Amino acid sequence: MDRFLLFLGCFLPSVADYSKDQHGYFMFSDFFCYIPSRNPKEVQYLIDWYFNMELTMQYNSSVGGWTGFTPAGLITAAKFNADKHDVVQRILERELVCQRSVEMVYNGTEEAKVEPNVSLQTVEDNDPTLECSALDFYPKHIRLTWLSNGQEVTEGVTFSDVLPNGDWTYQAHTYLTLTPGKQDHISCMVQHASLKEPKIYNWESSKNHTENYIIGGVCALLLGAVFLCGGLIHYKLRRRSFAI
């Protein structure tokens, strides 16, 4: 399920600034709308209140009020919670700013989705390492998972950062170091907002290719032998009929 955090920055001027050497008092707040689904009732409204770069208190609509984290924050939070006007104001802010933005946020992000181009390759021959690359996708969040015989692999796995391409798309890579002599069915599973369900990409080792060629060759020889035997039997039967 897609989740979105709508950031609403509010940069407030200093409540007091009596110092001339830039060491006065400074206050600001961050406003957030946490949107876990299209259901407006699940929207969470958050306010982080800072004083001199220290988080002093927080408003959380799920809690239903302010929570203080410092001595001054505890006093101010209690004052705000007792203020009926502040209580009504936060309820209206959640409704007008957050809940009414749900459809806009989801529609805007769902329209802009680009499916990743995925490739698997061996990057080191001596110490076999597989690379699963997801290229040119949007939005940024993606999950790449290595599977061995259908089970998630965690050992010998490394990930790159999700890197911007400079054209609003992204790329990501993950690497798996193979265990020598261990012959498992290796796959890379990709989960992304542009995909209705996870996609699994299988890796074909050189040994598997060789085995496939050998099996194909044996099947061709057997099929040729069957046709040859059938032709000889048909030839002998026709020759016998002419002799009679």
From TrEMBL:
<dbReference type="InterPro" id="IPR011162">
    <property type="entry name" value="MHC_I/II-like_Ag-recog"/>
</dbReference>
<dbReference type="InterPro" id="IPR050160">
    <property type="entry name" value="MHC/Immunoglobulin"/>
</dbReference>
<dbReference type="InterPro" id="IPR014745">
    <property type="entry name" value="MHC_II_a/b_N"/>
</dbReference>
<dbReference type="GO" id="GO:0019882">
    <property type="term" value="P:antigen processing and presentation"/>
</dbReference>
<dbReference type="InterPro" id="IPR013783">
    <property type="entry name" value="Ig-like_fold"/>
</dbReference>
<dbReference type="InterPro" id="IPR000353">
    <property type="entry name" value="MHC_II_b_N"/>
</dbReference>
<keyword id="KW-0325">Glycoprotein</keyword>
<protein>
    <recommendedName>
        <fullName>Ig-like domain-containing protein</fullName>
    </recommendedName>
</protein>
<feature type="transmembrane region" description="Helical">
    <location>
        <begin position="213"/>
        <end position="235"/>
    </location>
</feature>
<dbReference type="InterPro" id="IPR036179">
    <property type="entry name" value="Ig-like_dom_sf"/>
</dbReference>
<keyword id="KW-0472">Membrane</keyword>
<dbReference type="InterPro" id="IPR003597">
    <property type="entry name" value="Ig_C1-set"/>
</dbReference>
<dbReference type="GO" id="GO:0006955">
    <property type="term" value="P:immune response"/>
</dbReference>
<dbReference type="GO" id="GO:0042613">
    <property type="term" value="C:MHC class II protein complex"/>
</dbReference>
<feature type="signal peptide">
    <location>
        <begin position="1"/>
        <end position="16"/>
    </location>
</feature>
<keyword id="KW-1133">Transmembrane helix</keyword>
<dbReference type="Pfam" id="PF07654">
    <property type="entry name" value="C1-set"/>
</dbReference>
<feature type="domain" description="Ig-like">
    <location>
        <begin position="116"/>
        <end position="201"/>
    </location>
</feature>
<dbReference type="InterPro" id="IPR007110">
    <property type="entry name" value="Ig-like_dom"/>
</dbReference>
<keyword id="KW-0812">Transmembrane</keyword>
<keyword id="KW-1015">Disulfide bond</keyword>
<keyword id="KW-0732">Signal</keyword>
